[in-house]
Each structure stands twice: as structure tokens, then as C-alpha cells.
Known about the structure:
The protein has three domains: 144 residues, Alpha-Beta Complex (Adenine-n6-DNA-methyltransferase TaqI, Chain A, domain 2); 88 residues, Orthogonal Bundle (Helix Hairpins); 137 residues, Adenine-n6-DNA-methyltransferase TaqI, Chain A, domain 2, CATH 3.90.220. Helix content is 35%, strand content 21%. The strands form six sheets. It has a five-stranded mixed beta sheet with strand order 2-9-6-7-4. The protein has a four-stranded antiparallel beta sheet with strand order 12-18-15-16, covered by helices on one side. Helix 6 packs antiparallel against helix 11. The radius of gyration is 26 Å and the shape is elongated. The model has no long low-confidence stretch (mean pLDDT 95).
Amino acid sequence: MSAWDTKRLGDVVAIIGGGTPTRNNPAFYGGAIPWVTPKDMKSWEIRGAQVSITQSGLDNSSTRLVPPNSVLIVVRSGVLKHTIPVGLNRLPVAINQDMKALQCREGVDPEFLAHFIKAQSPIILQWVRATTADNFPIDRLKSLHIPLPPLPEQQRIAEVLDRTEALRAKRRATLAQLNSLTQSIFIDMFGDPATNPKGWTWRMLKDLGAVITGGTPPSAKPGMFDGPIPFITPGDLESDRPVKRSVTEAGANEIVTVRGGAALVCCIGATIGKIGKAAVRSSFNQQVNAVEWGETVNDSYGFAVLHFFKPTIIAWGASTTLPILKKSAFERIEIPVPPIDLQREFARRLLILDRLEALSKASLASLDELFAALQSRAFRGEL
């Protein structure tokens, strides 16, 4: 590392800004030039965009054509609350004003630079200003000092990191396929619940188990929180992370709990329709309704079938400024109920997929640790 040069990032790149052609002129849109915005920054390699512009749109706006293999970075977006999107465009693109493009000068490898910026995410996230649109000052980015080994060494480091990232991407793809396979198995066994082509009996949720609305223990009372019972809020639904909060037995007695296996549905607020399943006996707040299934519905089937009714939940709750689906309406949602033996067979198959998913998640976690270690060592000259 001592033999490597260290330079200000602003001295080794040319920074290209973006803009938006006026929407009032249809002739500016629908052309051959991808117009990249933060919505397109979901992959490492950028090979297109949701919206394209014409040469006229490019010529009559503040956006410019970005050469291939530039480093694209989001500098203004709500996503900056938790991540710094970075990517490399593999073809000429234009960008909007929420983006910057870094064009490497001689002696700097774009892949190496992109990995370096991504590795600095913890530092850059501290610069983000929570204004109307979260952003960070580009001058701070330009002031970063980047270690610059000889170009062949930069390329070697980038290749090592690229290969490890490719393995991570494959694991993420495997997990996505397993998730879609669950839905495919469900459709194959039961048909689409929205149309119920197999003619299963329709039943309201309130007739299939106990429908319960959660609550929050009074914070003024001592000894309510930080106990052994998970306290689930909408932020915990559809998340692989451990539940953030918990309550004591005394806290649980102030509200309600459900057994493990109960379905949990957010019925108030911006995240209305999010669905989860209690892993163990759990409490939950007032934004969540739970269904503790009775004898005619298997827990795994009930959890799976509710996902198909998420659009219904969202639509029924959208009639007010604050989306809300009252318990009296939620419990009247009807779902098809196949024979319990068929539901149990679905649960058995799902258990096999769950085991495969657990193995894939463990593998991905190991690869994430490996990538973080390699990334840390790479820019210290220890790779």
C-alpha cells in the first residue's frame, strides 16, 4: 500500500451532470438514448433505462451524453437514506439531475473506481442531508482520497470483486426463483384464488379463525417492553430481519398475543397490505390485524393465500387520506378453502422449499461476509 499513489477523487475523474427534457414536448421522448434515473439504478451494469429520449431531447436540455463505462451514482433520492446506488453504463446514456456520471481520466479503471465508491458507502451515507429530497454534496465526493495502484493491479482487484459479486448475484437469483416457485406450486395445486377455477368453497376470514387487532402497551407503565415476546409492527412484516422490539408478559397482558403460525396483515398507513407470519407467540401493534386460523385452514396455506389478496386489501383501504382497512371490513374478505388434506400437502412441499431457502440464505450471508472482507482488504493493498 505504501507504494500506491493516493489522489483526490475530483482530480482523477470528469464529472458529468444530468437534466430533464421538458415533458411538454413529446418529440423529446421515445428515442434511442436511455435516460437513466435513480429508478434504473438497481443493478451493477446499466444497459438500458425505463425511459428513453431523442437526440432533440438531449440537445434541448441540460442533460448530456455519458460515454460507456462511466461510473453512475445517485446523488439525490429517498434511497440515500440507506444505500448509495452505483453502477457502470455499458452503452451511451443520458442521466437526470438526481445523478452524476464520473468519467475516469487516464490511469484509472472504471470498475476499480466503482468498487471504491461503493466501499465508501458508510462514509457517504453520513453526508446525506434529509431535505425535501435526500441528497449529498458532490464536493464531498470529490474530496475523497482514492488509492491508485498501477492500472493492471486495479483491474485485478476489480476482477476479484466482480467474481465474488457474481456469486452473490447468483444466490440472490436462486432465492428469487424459490419465491416464485412457491407461488407456482400454489397455483398448480389450488388455482388462482382471485378466480377460484377449481370451485373451492368461499369463506370469510371471520369464519375461518379469530381475527384480532393489535395494540401497544402503555409506555407510561414500567416493565412493559424488552421482554421475551416479539412486538411486531408493520416494519417487521415481509422482512428477514429479527423483530426489532419486544414486550414482557406484563406488556402482553395489556394487549393481545397470537400463537406462532398466525397471519399478520398491516391494515393502516402507507405500508397497508404487508403480510407476515408469527414465528412464535407474538404481540403486535394497532396497525396490524392477525388471523389465528382454525381447524379448516392450515397456517401455511392461510399465509400464502392472503398474498393473493394484497391488491384487495390495498384497494379497500384506499378510500381515505390515510389508508385504513377497519377490522370489520378486513374480516369479511373471502378466500377459497380447499380440503385440509390438500392444504397440508402444500405445507409439506413448502417446508422443503423453506429448507432450500434457508441453505441459500446462509450461503448468501457467507458470500456477503467474504465480499466485505475482500472489499476492505482491496483498498488497503492487502488483496
